[in-house]
Amino acid sequence: MNSTPVQESAKPVLLVVDDDHMIRTLLAQSLGMHGFQVETATNAQEMDAVLARCPVSLILLDVMMPGEDGVSVCRRLARVGAPPIVMLSALGDEPDRILGLEIGASHYLSKPCSPREILATVRAALRAREIQDAGESRSFAFLGWRVDFAAHELFDPDGTLIDLTDGEFAVLRAFVERPRRVLARDALLEAARGPDTDAFDRAIDVQVSRLRRKLRSRGDEIIRTIRNEGYFFVPRVARQ
Fold this sequence. Notes:
Number of strands: 13
Radius of gyration: 19 Å
Oligomer: single chain
Mean pLDDT: 81
Low-confidence stretches: 1-9, 194-201
Order of helices and strands: EHEHEHEHEHEEEEHEHHEEE
Helix content: 25-40%
Shape: elongated
Distance between the termini: 37 Å
Strand content: 15-25%
Strand order of the largest sheet: 2-1-3-4-5
Largest sheet: 5 strands, parallel
């Protein structure tokens, strides 16, 4: 896996998943020149590793890949609330395009396509997601708990407001927005960073431990430790 040499966390992160080295390199360079941080993966397994360690704003996904193909990947990611997916494929007939859109892709581009067309599509998909997020509730529920990210509030099953630090709330948000997926410690640490840096100077394990106590979780009931990998948010999460 490679990435463009961009370090600014404020830049949207794009993930290019394609088994063709030349296509990955060209897209990373082209999109990197237009203000994006670009991560790359050659197959579904590498893609999952990238998604576990960093927040991704959009996925550019090849259809014809060895192992799990793009159609299977798109269908799987759509079930767990993945970021927007732009499918890239040499299969450009109408039934192929319709299938891609029906299983959850936001756009479907037929290869070959120009970097300019890909850039315009990426920007359109990101704008559409921003509009969608702005109009949707930012309230989620799990095991009787309710968290409202817009209001920065967490309520227990009895309706009592639970006080969280900014760091604990940021870590909870990372878990709730990506439930039932192993999240690496680096990804959680990145999520817990913010403008008030002195609030986030403790190890991520400490943040998780405190969050467990406030969620009244014994052991791995809610936040499961995955040895040498990170953490896994066990409950199923519903948007309210």
